[in-house]
Amino acid sequence: MRHASGTSSPYRNHQLVVSVVILLDAFAFGLSIGPCLNEVELWGLAAAFVFVLLALVATVLSTVCINPIDVGMSRDQLANVNQTKNPIYCFQCKFYMRPKSKHCWNCNMCIAGFDHHCLWVNHCIGTRNYGYFFATTFWLLCSLALSWAP
Ligand SMILES: [Zn+2]
Ligand SMILES: [Zn+2]
Which ligand is nearest to the CA of 70? Predict the structure, then answer.
């Protein structure tokens, strides 16, 4: 069975850990800044944290909802591939995969521009969602840094 999205089953415990960490992060920030919100200068910090949290959720959802699948190559495309690099046939997907693709045994499909299978989002990271994955790590670091700011 193909695992086309990080939001589909089978799920992994790592996903639960990430969700709990993000929620705890938001909770800890709320607890630490909540009692001090009568100081107007802290409102900017609170607004920045809410913005970063929303950006983080948006990039995580984009990362896990984009299917980084390699759809294989047609005969014409196969002929255009540099012959010094022999195209690799995937016996699971039953097609010739594109250069830099790799079959992921967790997702059970070939991934275009395979980077890695991320256990934390339970999804493969490839060419199509690499930008969103990178943004996710950026916003996650920002949210952790901001939650320690107060
Ligand atoms: Zn494959
Ligand atoms: Zn995978």
Answer: 1
Structure confidence by residue, pLDDT tens digits, 21-64: 888 888 888 777 777 777 777 788 888 888 999 999 999 999 99
**0.90 cut: is pTM over it?**
no
Asked if the peptide bond before residue 10 counts as cis, ω within 30 degrees of 0, the response is yes
Q: Which of 36, 118, 124, 142 is catalytic?
A: 118
Segment (H or E) for 60: helix 41-65
List residues, by chain if needed, whose CB lies under 5 Å from ion ligand 2.
104, 106-107, 117, 124
Buried b (16+ CB within 10 A) or exposed e, 74-92: eeeeeeeeeeeeebeebee
Distance in angstroms (rounded) separating the CA atoms of residues 34 and 59:
26
Query: Residue 91 corresponds to which amino acid?
Result: F
CB 26, CB 53: distance < 8 Å: yes
Please say if 124 is a catalytic residue: no
